[in-house]
Amino acid sequence: MKSASIAIVGLGPRGLNILERLSALLNAGYATPALTLHLIDPAIPGQGVHEWSQPQHLLVNTVAGQITMYSDDTVEGAGPVAPGPSFLDWVRARGYRCVDGKYIVSSAGLEIGENDYLPRSLLGEYLTAVYDRLIAGFPANVTLHNHRREVKQMTRLDDGKLALRLDGDYLIAADFCCLALGHCKGRQDEFDRMLEAMTNQGESKNSRLRFFRNPYPIAALSRISPADRVAICGAGLSATDVVSALTSGMGGRFEAAAPGHLRYLSCGREPAMHMFSRQGVPFGGRAVNQKGVGGQYKTRFFTREAIDAARHRTRLHSGSSQLDFDRDVWPVLKLEMAYVHECTQDKQWLDPRDYRPAPASLQAIDTLVAPLDGIRFATYADYQQFVQAYLRQDIADALEGNVENPRKAAADVIRDVRDNIRYAVDHCGLTPESHRRFLSHWCAVMNRIAVGPPKERNMELLALCEAGLLEFGMGPNPAIGYDGAAHRYTLSSTAFAQAHAAAFDVFVRAKIDVFEPEQTTSALIEDLLASGLAAPFRNGAFKPSGLAVSPAANLIDATGCVVDNVWALGNIAEGPTFYTYVLPRPQVNSRAIQDAGKVALAMLDKIGTPGHSLDPTASNQSQPNLIAA
User: Fold this and answer.
1) 164: β partners
2) Chain mean position to CA 478
3) Alpha-carbon span 421 to 600, nearest angstrom
């Protein structure tokens, strides 16, 4: 090629990963002709859902020291290392410090530590600073265009090139395209329609009746008044955002009352809140990080070799290599967690070759997975007492740390072995039936155990419970209804011996839309499906979510053919791949940077002048390894 053009659609973290890898490769001497990069996103580049306009009480769910947008020498198969500042490096270099609970540029206050949970608005600033640094550093033969528009249509022409139509009918021609659209809005599902019907039925009779199908933008919740009773559906990260918006966001304050214990100082503008969830207990808080920036537990049992062996057994037995998560994967992962729990509790690491889990260790893992199993509550008051005791224990565990506390150390295994879970699950690794259960049951359980909010959020929940401003749930799976006489939503317990119900004016569904291609409001995705250039991912008869992509991240079209010049990364590929929305972390061979590197290498290999190409296996080097094509 004498010249070439690449379009990156979406400039949140995944699009930024592609841009960073292209920058690293081109600046390391990868031979290319004149290259044009079209960077397309209507929003501020880099930020995605981490807009810098958000209030500071909305926090990143990862400690500052474990976020970066740059590669390091642990990243494999992604091209040369091009060092850059981590999130922590950047906020310190900018002069940010914590002053009276606010993060500002100042010489006063507290220095930001590697284990601090920082505002998402600061992360948005960092991501845009990364973008600015990258575009300023491309070599002279690269021309960049930032289009603040949405792509409405993409067509593959007869010669294989791509025509992208932006809003306003602006046209772009590109040889290659990477789709990194992030979180796309979805249409109403059956649950939404049920709540919408209730709202339509009663809002003319109750001016406070209101349904929020998701809580973002968070400023919309300012319409909730102190007189409202609010039902919050969910107990995860979005739910804690809602609680924070209706307390700290209204002007209330939390203050230390004792070590590990907060007191809430009301501003008088908070509504009464009721949080509930399918699992019936709060998410586990993230423990004090004792692993540093890149420390991870190294598996003894739940290894890729163990997964390969399970596939071999399954193939011999059934002729298929697809696994059943409950039968083939979970027992080995549970063994790993029991081993960590037992060794941590006994303060000595046992020889894994001789390890036989103690019944108490296995029971500890069962309790993490299903804390309400075997427990029956006579009354609503009994359940409230249980939840508060559960929060107190979780907070105490979290304060002991993710290395020293047995329960938190065992739970953290799930985060540390996520790549091996991906190895078992990605690209139809599970049977269709097991894949369905993995997504509906196991992902919810693992998120509650290992991907909860910072421990401070659970301290806040407990303080609000003690202040009488928040109650947690009616037990698991309460019944949702509507009181036609009072014109209010209702929740009723399904798990107590003595029935209990309550009525609410506001219902907040605390979740982000799952990307289901056929339900999205994205005009581009609708067009790709209609033209057949893309297709929903399927695992047999099961259609989970996401677009169909190859292991190399190329789109797969409606005929099952690989589209060799279009790639898809991130949330729109959540389905064929697992847990795509994690930000890159230093020193752990980040999957996000690996994937971006493979895509960037594939693009440049197709563009590169004859006779020169980077060896994709030679990633940990400061200079490219040029080999014959």
Assistant:
1) 154, 172
2) 26
3) 25
